[in-house]
Specification:
Blueprint (H helix, E strand, L loop, with lengths): L15 E3 L2 E5 L5 E5 L9 E3 L4 H5 L21 E5 L2 H11 L3 H9 L8 H6 L13 H11 L8 E3 L35 E3 L4 H11 L4
Parallel strand pairs: 4-5, 6-7
Antiparallel strand pairs: 1-2, 2-3, 3-5
Bound molecules: iron/sulfur cluster.
Iron/sulfur cluster (SF4) binds next to strand 6 and helix 6.
């Protein structure tokens, strides 16, 4: 696919969506950041300090801990009103650590991806066993663990192995397309890119090998 122009700031054109978040211009030159579902709603809890996002990112609407920051369970009900766009970047960084930088690097054509087998193969200690996962088990695990509806909103860029096998035959092709809005809202949205299997997937692979799943 054709990458967006890397010389243009990814946050320059507003409104802009990334994951479940929408960033917008507001009157008098300020900016708002909110959950995409909450756009235009009244009665949201207003924050002016970007660091408040650290706590908001921690739990979902039901108060459950969010171990995966890119899971599709971002809590609702908040609105950041910010004077500077740099503050909006800080909010995004708290909600989706490292994702803006990964997107920028990808736009420059310099994002390195790592095949799943390589990631599993370099594990040490208790996670070394994850490398023993079979092809069928890996196909099923990635197909369920990484799915956008209920698993993770990232767009997968890595392959299963060095030969370029698909991460999972159970995932739709759009799961690997940075232009696709993984939230299913069918809006223009910046992707949350996944360049390498995360620690949670590695741990899940170990559980499969150990018969814990
Ligand atoms: S491996 Fe990537 S896509 Fe899968 S759950 Fe982890 S961060 Fe999400």
């Amino acid at each position: 696919m054709r990458r967006p122009d890397a010389s243009v700031d990814w946050l320059e054109v507003l409104p802009c969506c990334i994951g479940e978040i929408r960033i917008m211009h507001r009157a008098a030159g300020s900016f708002t950041v909110s959950h995409r579902d909450d756009t235009g709603l009244e009665g949201l809890a207003v924050y002016r300090d970007a660091d408040a996002a650290i706590e908001l990112a921690r739990y979902d609407d039901a108060g459950r801990y969010r171990s995966l920051k890119t899971a599709p369970n971002l809590r609702h009900g908040w609105l950041f009103v910010l004077d500077r766009l740099e503050q909006a970047r800080e909010v995004i960084e708290h909600f989706y650590p490292g994702r803006a930088a990964a997107y920028q690097t990808w736009r420059s054509g310099e994002l390195r991806t790592t095949p799943l087998r390589e990631t599993l193969g370099r594990q040490t200690g208790m996670y070394r066993a994850s490398a023993k996962i079979s092809e069928r088990q890996a196909d099923e695990l990635v197909g369920t663990f990484c799915r956008s509806d209920g698993g993770c909103l990232r767009t997968i860029l890595w392959k299963r192995d060095a030969a370029g096998a698909s991460p999972s035959t159970l995932l739709p092709k759009v799961k690997f397309d940075p232009e696709f809005d993984q939230t299913g809202r069918d809006e223009a949205a910046r992707p949350l890119l996944c360049q390498e299997a995360c620690n949670l997937l590695v741990a899940a692979a170990r559980n499969v090998v150990k018969g814990g799943q």
